[in-house]
Amino acid sequence: MCPPAEFALRSRQGRLHRLELAPPPPGRPDPERAVKEYSRPAAGKPPPAPSELRPPAVLLATVRHLLALAEEEDDEDDKKKEGAPAAAGRVSSWERGAFVADRLRAVRLDVTVQRLSGRPAAALLERALVYLLHAGHHHHQQQQRLEEAPAGFDAHLHRGHVQETFAALRRAYRQAEEEEEEEGGPPLPSQARFQALFLLYHLGSTEALWQTLQLPEEVRTSPELRTALAINGAFLERNFARFFRLARALPYLPSCALHQHLGSVRRLALMTFSSGFSARNCRYPLPRLARLLAMDDLEEAAELCRAHGLAVTEGSVVFQKSSFKDCSPRTARTDGLLVEGKREKVTLLELSEKICS
Question: Which segment of 150-154, 175-179, 208-212, 238-242 scores lowest on mean pLDDT?
Fold first, then answer.
């Protein structure tokens, strides 16, 4: 998974990651665990030698290795739960996530340099997106619980990585369609799932909606894409009851793609209700509001209302248009109803093999 020249160089310089060292205890460089790291292409730099590029089969094995590596136990969670000191050689979830994300960028660079297209490229990029969407939700929730910025996770960089991977995957789908027209092969069965993930990740974007509506009819009319279009339509129409009802029914990975927008949608819902239910003696039951917004507990729903300037008294919310405070969207500490409770008892690698090409 790592070119011999790079492995030798990083071994001499002491730049091998702890996840690339042989257990137990870690310390000895292991060529079977080493993975090619990302190196930004420089202007004027000669193209890499063929020996530095991994063919599609090796790239696929590399991505599967990284998906398996992503969910190994980490010290940080054990330490938080049990108060125990970190075991020697163990890696925190933040460090593990940074390692996997960097190596996936290197995979995407190899795909670009070799000009891989169609089905081989799609198989790699789909699996990379499974990890990126899962990691985006997981790291964001960890940050909310720890109430501090993660040391090894850059949300802006991660968002750019997801968008670039989506763009590359959608190009691969178009190339695969052209190949199918020439050869008469069946379409990729996973395309509809990932086109739906694209629309959910870019919820409310007119450009993403326009691109989705240009897809072939058999993809556009698939159950996954019809659901994503319905959720996007409910958001644009400000039909929040329908939006959250549909969001509850989504599987785990689409819920991860949608998760980043939940705070904004809840903020818009409270703003709308503050106008629609604004009356001196009007009281809206807090349990009903928490159920409508698909929040896990009443206390968190009350905190959300107070953060937006709305009074909560005797288990009810007092909506007043004049008192609403339009602050930045707040992300819930937990989203068991909409995301976390949907995770099947399978590993990330098993999930990717189930839904990818």
Answer: 150-154
Please state the domain extents for the chain. 4-194
Burial of 317 (0-12, 13-18, 19+ CB in 10 A): buried
- DSSP H or E stretch at residue 235: helix 223-236
* Beta-bridge partners for 316: 285, 313
Phi-psi region of 316 (alpha: psi -120 to 50; beta: other; left: phi over 0): beta
Q: What is the pLDDT of residues 62-79, one digit of tens each?
A: 999 999 998 875 444 444
Q: Name the nearest CA neighbour of 95 among 17, 201, 183.
A: 17
Provide the residue count of the chain.
357
User: Tokens representing 98?
Assistant: 């940074």
Rounded to whole angstroms, how far apart are CA atoms 109 and 41? Answer: 9
pTM of the model: 0.90
Q: How far apart are CA 100 and CA 94, in angstroms?
A: 10
